[in-house]
Amino acid sequence: MPLSHNQTGTVDQDKAMSKTENNHTVLFAVAATAATAGALAGPLSSMVHRAYKRHRHRKHTHFTLGSWRAREYGQAVRYLLAYLELPWKDRFFDMGPGPDYHQLAWVDAKDEAAHDKAVVPFSAQGLTTYLVVEERGWCQMGREGKRKGVKHARTIMRYLGRQYGLIGRNVKEMEAVDLLLDELQDFTLALHRLVHNPSYAREKERFFTTALASRLGGFEDWLLNEKKTHKKSSPTGGLWLVGGRMTVADFVLYDLLSQARTLYPPALSSHRELQDFTYRFEALPSIAQYLGSEACQLLPLFMVKVV
């Protein structure tokens, strides 16, 4: 059943999670038993713990993701929330019309947020992508829910990665994820400079066939190296960027490849490994549900109009 959003962008949690609720209830019981008896250890214990945490968060944690109304802001976070099957609400802000694209919308929101000390979604430069996490329900034992705010898309990705075991299993993998996130930030900035360039129409093809092609080649080489490194030790080796299993870096890479492919359809034509990566990502059940949802399809790619 596809994920459904209401008119305010809220994920319909009851419908989206009904198929998996029984499984997570069982995992909840297993995790509780393991915590008491110490019956599970190592990777299996970690897997059950993450499943238990997702189960608890579905029922008792509410997420609000705030950003400008465009996929260029915070979309990788949405992919990650969808993959984890966590309920969230999007709060979008609209920039003014071009050529100035004023950011007055965030001024009113900043005044509103000033009354909530747990939420600090703003910087001196304007609105940043932010995530509000609010715990509710039995775990608060009648008290008002705990609230915290995390700002900046990459910081949010690292926060969720730590919470759900998608940041790397050891120091070496964590360092690789950090390196990739920095490299992907450079990729992000390059795309932003292109679409905001007054000469976009003239520069687009040259950018995608030269500068970006070289950058994409680097990520393709990384995947090929992962495939060689983990081919024998892991059946999923080389499918994802780090350690043969998914990390937050995979979500950011897919987001940027999707943007590039939308702007310039042949962008990945010479990069078979990256094409296969996008197919694998899109075939993940929870990702496929989100990609097919109205909320995802109606969101524009960029704030500015590109041709």
In terms of topology, how is this protein built?
Elements: H1 13-17, H2 21-37, H3 42-60, E1 61-68, H4 75-83, E2 88-93, H5 105-113, E3 122-123, E4 126-127, E5 130-135, E6 147-151, H6 153-163, H7 171-195, H8 200-230, H9 248-263, H10 272-283, H11 285-291, H12 294-297
Parallel strand pairs: 1-2
Antiparallel strand pairs: 1-5, 3-4, 5-6
Helix pairs in contact: 2-3, 4-9, 7-8, 7-9, 9-10
Question: What's this model, at a glance?
Answer:
This is glutathione transferase. The chain has 307 residues and is an alpha+beta fold.
Walkthrough of the structure:
With 307 residues, the chain is α+β, with helices and mostly antiparallel strands. It has a domain at 171-297: Up-down Bundle (Glutathione S-transferase Yfyf (Class Pi), Chain A, domain 2). It has twelve helices and six strands. The strands form two sheets. A four-stranded mixed beta sheet has the order 2-1-5-6. A two-stranded antiparallel sheet has the order 3-4. A hairpin with a 2-residue loop joins strand 3 and strand 4. Helix 2 (21-37) packs across helix 3 (42-60) and helix 9 (248-263) packs across helix 10 (272-283). Residues 61-168 form the GST N-terminal domain.
